[in-house]
Design brief:
The chain has about 475 residues and is an alpha+beta fold. The chain is built from twelve helices and 18 strands.
Length: about 475
């Protein structure tokens, strides 16, 4: 393929450009639209800062509180802000402001049609394919620093024990006073210390009620002058935990608010695991005993003990458990029906509502919230919500496959010069479709094409790299 080789193989093109081609091809193959339509771009041209200012007219003025955003270092599509205040009883009140994307992205518009088609932003090593055009998601509907923005505010009291009470949801105009990054949180120290303390209380209570403390591994591609130099695991830190804890609380409050108003909702659910017997076997192989029926509390107790006994391998165990738990999905939830709930979070009520710039289910939920607040008819019928739930689940799965395809091609490119080398690995997937293993340095996954019989998720194995294929993202190993 003359002219298509990467710079690491001596060709004129960069690794990033080659991976971008892989990403775009994978998007199309997975029924995801890599580009916005002419109609959507024409709509975009008619939107400006005046439209954004107009969206704040008549809203409660909450610009004074010390709102801050905490996100990835390079993120501009800022969906939420947070602020907290201490209460005399040792508890606190937390506020999460979510960007009012619906104010500018109207249901049925061409931009909305693109968002509905993809249902999510797709993040690959080479290129981001945003659900909404950058002019919106990184500017007009972003809660960017120093700008007045319309928002949905989710307010709740957190008791000293981490229990949520006295929650409310309302519309307001807010201002981001400081854009902070996960890896560089600084300034507004007192406010952040308070939020961190509340987040730890919320997390402690969740774990006491059976939420699972799993640590998964996401590899970040490192480029230097266009060349791919490494795949590095993204480490967790207190700032990421803080935002996760606040967003889980806000999403739980949102789901309950809609139920109390008698409004159907789009819930994020994780059903009781069908492969529980395999999780029991995995625990038994490590000298632990789990009950025969699924129990998130028992599983969390096991995870706690394993983290304490072998912290260096806890990520490997977590990956195995995540695979066996199965994937989350979206589901229509009707008022006064017993909800499916979220097994891993140990929550009865849970929606996705805090990232409407990036996820279509959150934009749907925002429209349902605004209808409930104004006592108007829900913008979606129940059959429509059911179809959208299935669509969002399907497209999320397709987006995950695109992101995985690009990671696999990046791994193939990075490992292409290391054929014949041996690595320590562990099994991340085992089914009729094949057996997959992950190595640590670089953080890459590949297929075990020889010596895979009898292996299952979680097993450790020594492998030799046999072959790589950049275009297809194949990395082939053999057991040694």
């Amino acid at each position: 393929m003359a002219g298509k080789r990467s710079s690491q193989e001596g060709g004129p093109r960069s690794a990033r450009m080659d991976l971008r081609g892989v990403a775009r091809k994978a998007m199309v193959e997975r029924s995801l639209e890599p580009d916005f339509s002419d109609a959507a771009l024409a709509e975009l041209e008619r939107l400006d800062e005046a439209a954004s200012r107009g969206a704040t007219s008549g809203l409660t003025d909450l610009r004074t509180p010390l709102w801050v955003s905490i996100d990835n270092d390079d993120s501009l599509d800022l969906d939420q802000l947070s602020v907290a205040e201490a209460l005399p009883d040792g508890g606190a009140r937390i506020f999460v402001a979510v960007a009012d994307v619906d104010a500018l992205v109207k249901k049925g518009s061409a931009i909305d049609a693109h968002a509905k088609a993809n249902t999510t932003s797709v993040y690959t090593a080479a290129q981001i394919f945003p659900m909404l055009p950058d002019k919106l998601s990184t500017d007009l509907t972003s809660l960017r620093e120093g700008a007045d923005r319309a928002a949905i505010v989710i307010e709740t009291r957190v008791g000293p024990d981490g229990a949520l009470a006295d929650s409310s949801v309302y519309r307001a105009v807010v201002r981001n006073h400081a854009k902070l990054a996960y890896n560089g949180v600084a300034g507004v120290d007192e406010q952040l210390r308070l939020q961190d303390r509340i987040a730890q209380t919320l997390r402690k209570r969740r774990f006491e009620h059976g939420a699972l403390s799993l640590e998964t591994l996401e590899a970040r591609a490192v480029f230097e002058d266009g060349s791919l130099t490494d795949l590095v695991p993204e480490a967790r830190n207190r700032a990421k935990d803080l935002i996760e804890d606040f967003m889980i609380a806000a999403n739980s409050v949102t789901a309950r608010f809609l139920e109390q108003r008698g409004v159907p909702s789009l819930r994020r659910v994780l059903r009781s695991p069908e492969r529980w017997a395999k999780i029991v076997d995995l625990a038994e192989s490590l000298g632990a005993k789990l009950p025969p029926e699924p129990s998130n509390a028992a599983l969390q107790a096991f995870l706690d003990k394993r983290h304490e006994a072998d912290p260096d391998r806890f990520v490997d165990l977590s990956v195995s458990v995540v695979k066996l738990l199965g994937r989350g999905e979206y589901a229509l939830e009707l008022p006064r029906r017993r909800p499916v709930g979220h097994f891993a979070l140990a929550l009865r009520d849970y929606s996705h509502s805090t990232a409407p710039n990036r996820r279509f289910p959150d934009l749907i939920t925002q429209r349902l919230l605004k209808a409930a607040l104004s006592n108007t008819k829900a913008p979606y019928s129940n059959p429509e919500l059911e179809r959208l739930a299935a669509r969002c689940t399907e497209q999320e799965d397709n987006a995950t496959k695109v992101e995985r395809q690009v990671r696999k091609s990046a791994a193939a490119l990075l490992l292409s010069s290391r054929i014949g080398e041996r690595f320590d690995a562990f099994v991340t997937g085992a089914s009729d479709k094949g057996t997959w293993v992950r190595i640590a340095e670089p953080a890459a996954e590949g297929r075990l094409v020889r010596g895979f019989r009898g292996l299952d998720v979680g097993d450790r194995v020594r492998v030799e790299l046999l072959k790589t294929d950049f275009e297809r993202g194949f990395v082939d190993f053999a057991k040694v």
